[in-house]
Design goal:
alpha/beta, 3 domains, five-stranded parallel β-sheet, P-loop_NTPase
Length: 429
Amino acid sequence: MSIDINKIFNKRANQSDQERFEKFDLTSNPFPKSGTANINESSDQTRLLIPIDDEVHMQIINYVKDSLFSTQEEDQKLIGTITGDYGTGKTQLLLYAKYLIQNQDKKAFVIYINNPGTKLSELIGSIIEKIGQEQFKKYLWNQVIDEIKKDSNDYKNSLLSYLSDKQGQMFGSDNDPFSVENESNHKAFLDAFLNQINNRTKRTEFNQTLKSIILRIFEKENSNDPVISDYFYNLISEDFGVNKTWETITTGSGKYLDNKVVKLLNAIINIIQNQGFERFYLLVDEFEDITSGRLTKKESDSYAYNLRALIDKERRWCLLIALTRTALDDIKKTSPPLVDRLTDRQINIERLSNTQTKQIILNYLNLSREPSENIFPFSDEAIDFLNKASEELPRLVLRKLYFIMERAADELNDNDEISAEFVEKYFEN
């Protein structure tokens, strides 16, 4: 039997999703192609895909409740660890926790990171990147300009002394360095002065004076630490991203890198709190990467030691990580004190029962139809077979469901049921 390729493709090209799946009372194929949670999915989707294990669901609710509404403002820290085999839904649970946190009245800043990197500095760089490079620069610059304008210091007068007309009026009111437009960022502010200073030497002196003032402001805000201050200065004054290596920002080999991470996280939290946020959450996925052989024993020991220091010394954050049980056991062998700190709360996800698989299928089907308890087009036997063949792993279940629904849309007639035989036919494809 020959295959009419043109007929197949033409039929598919001329059918909408709704036309293809209306035979199943669906508007589209609701299952994810990859079987994994979409980190960019809408909060409504995340809300619908709640944990199907009631115990796990309650544990994640308790973690959010106890951390978000704690009255201990000076010690907000709560560390939680989600464990489970590959494909059991750890990412989905992290995203559900993010949804819960962000949909309460308490104003919380939540960052999701899907890879912690091999150095703590990379983790901190990811935090800044998630805040948004330009947004973070704006936060830093606002801190600087607000301090420069305070009457309690002489920064403003020191800068204005470089102008012939100290009110910035030499070339019209639009050239006032302290106008709203010129205060918008470091470059605009600097140019507003330099455009009115004709002497090259004075221009150089002004640039150095402004730099010195900015560094003093950052040092005051960050425990007089020149490395952190220089890092922040370079972020707002130069045209490079937040992932520029510390070895370049600091001079030499970067050997002071990781022992600055605590201070840098502290500075970031200060900035976030200054924007009105009451809590700071870091959700880290795939934490097992630090045990996957990417690090030497020396590097792994250093990572564990510095992460312990970060957890112990900074109390104004909440951390929720996800990793496999095997990885957690590996960390326990090399650093029991770190595991002790990572498991204030441990939430373990088990593999699926047939009943739980049915609930997951219902949740996804209801994304593409009016909510119902009907598992049509699947038979009970089809679901039981699918769960067993998928080794009771949600990721594999969902990935196979997407493919099976595509084939069912092509081959089955109206009101046909997806049977165990149909699932078996396509499961290995």
